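Translate sequence into structure tokens.
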Amino acid sequence: MSLKLLKASILIFLIIFIDQMTKYLAIKFLAPDGVVKLLPFLNLVYVENTGTAFGMFKFLGSGFFIFISLFAIGFLVYMYFKDSKNWFIYYLIIAGALGNIIDRLIYGYVIDFIDLHLKNLHWPAFNVADSAISIGIILFLYKNLKK
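Result follows.
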């Protein structure tokens, strides 16, 4: 196994482990209606997200999102083999997708629990997997737009 592939495997494992552990804690301590106020702009809440980002497209169902996620993972693995110097970006997104697939397979929805807000304006709740996906996409866009 190459060093990059070993690093990628460790990265994926760590992100999935942290994601699933934090979701377990959200279920244990926040479900169904708990709220923990950490900072003036940050709460921990429990949300069952049956849709995609921002809770959109709920009507499509978990099976559809699992299929799309697996397709995206396949594409990202292909991208890794074409452009392995950016392995970190691709595997951040893959790890996040896998974390959310695990939720959909176990629960039929994704568990979100991070609530960022400014007074009464709340960003849709998200989780560690969503953060990995978002960071990966931001890095991908930065990498490709700076050319």
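Note: The beta strands are 35-39, 42-49, 110-118, 121-122.
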